[in-house]
Amino acid sequence: MAYQWDFAPVLANAPFLAEGLANTLKITGTALVCGVVLGLALALLRLSPRCFLSWPAGFVIEVFRTTPPLVQLFWFFFALPILVGIEMTPFVAGAVTFSIQSASFFAEVFRAGIQSIERGQWDGARAIGMRHDQALRRIILPQAVKRMIPAFMERAIELMKTTTLIATISYADLLFAANEISQKTFRPLETYTVVALIYFVVIFLASQVARLVELRLARSGESTVH
Amino acid sequence: MTILKVTGLTKRFGTTDVLRGIDLEVARGERIAILGASGSGKSTLLRCLNFMERPGGGTIALDGQVLGREGKSGERTYRENELIQVRQRVGMVFQQFNLFPHMTAIGNVMEGLRTVRGMPKPEAEARARKELARVGLAEKAETYPAHLSGGQKQRVAIARALAMDPEMLLFDEPTSALDPELVGEVLAVILALAEEGRTMMLVTHELGFAYHVATRIIFLADGAIHEQGSPDEVLKNPKKERTRAFLASHKQFSF
Amino acid sequence: MRWDFASVFDNTDALLVGAAGTLRIFAICLVLGLSLGLLVGLGRYSRNRWLHIPATVFVEFFRNTPVLVQILWFYFALPILLPFQISPLAAASLGISLNSAAFSAEIYRGGIQSIETGQWDGARALGMRWGQAMRRIILPQALKRMLPALTNRAIEIFKMSTLASAVAYVELLQQGKLIASLNYNPIEAYTAVAVIFFVFLWPLVQFSYFLERRLRRDE
């Protein structure tokens, strides 16, 4: 007997799906912004000649690159609140985990970008009397950031996929909405198929934009880091 | 009047002694050309003078003021702020230009004025235009380095150094990275600066140019001053064997 | 707050069972993912559109959807279309393997494309067929360049194996959850799980850094 597909119950829950997608974008955006800022800070600390700065930064980066994101998420959601005695909502736990986790990847992108700038640029900046931070801000980073754009976008897309883990601690993201709707309507096949397609469309479009930008950078002769 | 006094300057990279005790006094208005084979330490000497490289030993005094402080272990330590002051007073022009590719020509020239001096934008812009005009590039102000020829890039780099009102200019092989047909325009700019009576030190392979522009020639060998004197003395009547051999190997040299 | 790892050590057996589960799904997905990836990668490289288009669709679909969504789809949705149930291990392995196949396919394709055409010419001039040239000449050279990226894939697969806990497959994280709920010691339980993963993965990560450095040095 062939299965009778019926998408009507799923489509009737479109508002839930929309809300789930909005929450997915919210957690992605939050973690992206925090991750980039924190990633830059970690990269600068790691590049510091002082070992009491570079060492802890390197440790954080290694730990968060070397352990599974879901373990990190559980740790921040179930363990940390008891340790520090504060209530942790799923959103905060997710935002903290994904921010630090993506920061540890962004940090390596920043580091590669900064190190890819020729020494002569530092020389030129210092020769007109710039301090280290002025040279970094005005001369090195603007050039490095351009080379980092493709790696940066790739990471942002990975981040969006990673945020689905937050459904396991009951944050109402798109995947969580799928679980709810599927249980409510007894239509798991249609529900998970629709949700997979929504993720596909959003992420595919983002990848296409990333691809276009990378092509344009390549055509303008810009070298990039990964 | 002495502007710069170097005493017993040494520098080593790893296990190689690049500079082995340089003593040098530069008077205001002097133009010194530094010659020497590659590896003789001439670029390192220049880079030590504005602290692009930290000197290993010895002292450098600017306007009679000895820079840095004697540390406990006898090594001199330098504060970042002090070095920044020095670099504003001693400008530098590099072999590879080191222009900032994400800024236009005028943006490059304004950068030090704006960021280091904190000069307001209109003022910095007017100043930068003046410097670009001086090197003959007024009409290239809005062009990015990628669209400039090598000679033009180097002239922008000179304008960038001049904008900071340096009391002294260091040129580190300013024409070595240029195609032969572009060398002339850069040398013309340097010559014009020489005629204004600016204090400058120049590392170069252009012996003819050194002869015309310099008031003193220093020949460096193995990290030490091997021979020095007026251009006529060193280039036409070198006393030392190694100087002679060096000059003989530069056949393009003609007065 | 006092740390008390005794309650974790009391459950060493549970953790060992979990570790065995983690290693099992890792091994399955590593083999399936990387070998299927080679086939898909060759399809992506092929000029035959009947191979190229399906391979491309496969790669785009699995690269552009989250692996957790894939696992849940295989676990909750797929059985409806099939006459039999799907175990947590099967669902998680399918999701992780197909996802890894899509990513590694692009690594294989990139590696094969990076070999100069002169190598093809040389192999064909000896009278080799396409398959022989690929197997004997091109792939061995490409493999060396792909090794760092493939090692990174292996690391990702290891990390992704934790997602199997979402369908209650018994692996390390799942056992950590169990221990935490039985003993009310989430701090120690989850910290222990994190440390175990770190101990497993750290050598792999260092190895990948080493491979990257060596490749950069050689080229």
Strand order of the largest sheet of chain B: 8-9-10-3-11-12
Secondary structure class of chain B reads alpha/beta
Number of helices of chain A: 9
CATH domain topology of chain B: Rossmann fold
CATH architecture of chain B: 3-Layer(aba) Sandwich
Helix count of chain B, per DSSP? 9
**How is the CATH topology of chain A named?**
MetI-like fold
Write down the Rg of chain A. Answer: 21 Å
- The SSE string of chain B, one letter per element, is EEEHEEEEHEHHHEHEHEEHH
Order of helices and strands of chain A: HHHHHHHHH
Most strands sheet of chain A = none
Give the CATH class of chain A. Answer: Mainly Alpha
Number of strands of chain A: 0
Shape of chain A: flat
CATH architecture of chain A: Orthogonal Bundle
Strand content of chain B: 25-35%
Largest sheet of chain B: 6 strands, mixed
Question: What this model shows, in words?
Answer:
The complex is a heterotrimer of chains A (226), B (255) and C (219). Chain A has one domain: MetI-like fold, CATH 1.10.3720. Chain A contains nine helices and no strands. Chain A is flat, with a radius of gyration of 21 Å. The longest helix of chain A is centred in the first third of the chain and has 34 residues, at 14-47. By secondary structure, chain A is mainly α. The mean pLDDT of chain A is 92. With 255 residues, chain B is α/β, with parallel strands linked by helices. Chain B has a single domain, classed as Rossmann fold (3-Layer(aba) Sandwich). In chain B, the strands form three sheets. A six-stranded mixed β-sheet of chain B has the order 8-9-10-3-11-12, sandwiched between helices. In chain B, strands 2-1-4-5 form a four-stranded antiparallel β-sheet, with helices on one face. Chain B has nine helices and twelve strands. Chain B is globular and about 50 Å long. Chain B starts with a strand and ends in a 6-residue tail after the last helix. Chain B has helices at 42-49, 80-89, 105-116, 121-134, 150-162, 180-195, 207-213, 231-236, 241-249; strands spanning 2-13, 16-27, 31-35, 57-62, 65-66, 69-70, 76-77, 90-93, 168-172, 199-203, 216-221, 224-229. Helices cover 37% and strands 26% of the residues of chain B. With 219 residues, chain C is mostly helical. Chain C has a single domain (19-175), classed as MetI-like (MetI-like fold, Orthogonal Bundle). In chain C, 82% of the residues lie in helices and 0% in strands. Chain C contains nine helices and no strands. Chain C has helices spanning 6-9, 12-45, 49-63, 67-81, 88-113, 117-125, 130-160, 172-183, 186-218. In chain C, helix 2 (12-45) crosses helix 5, helix 3 (49-63) crosses helix 5 (88-113) and helix 8 packs antiparallel against helix 9. The relative contact order of chain C is 0.16. The model of chain C has no long low-confidence stretch (mean pLDDT 92). The chains are: A mainly alpha (226), B alpha/beta (255), C mainly alpha (219). Chains in contact: A-B, A-C. The A-C interface holds A 3, 62-63, 65-72, 74-75, 78-79, 82-83, 85, 160-162, 164-165, 167-168, 175, 178-179, 182, 188-189, 191-193, 195-196, 199-200, 203-204, 207 and C 1, 60-61, 63-70, 72-73, 76-78, 80-81, 158-163, 165-166, 173, 176-177, 180, 186-187, 189-191, 193-194, 197-198, 201-202, 205.
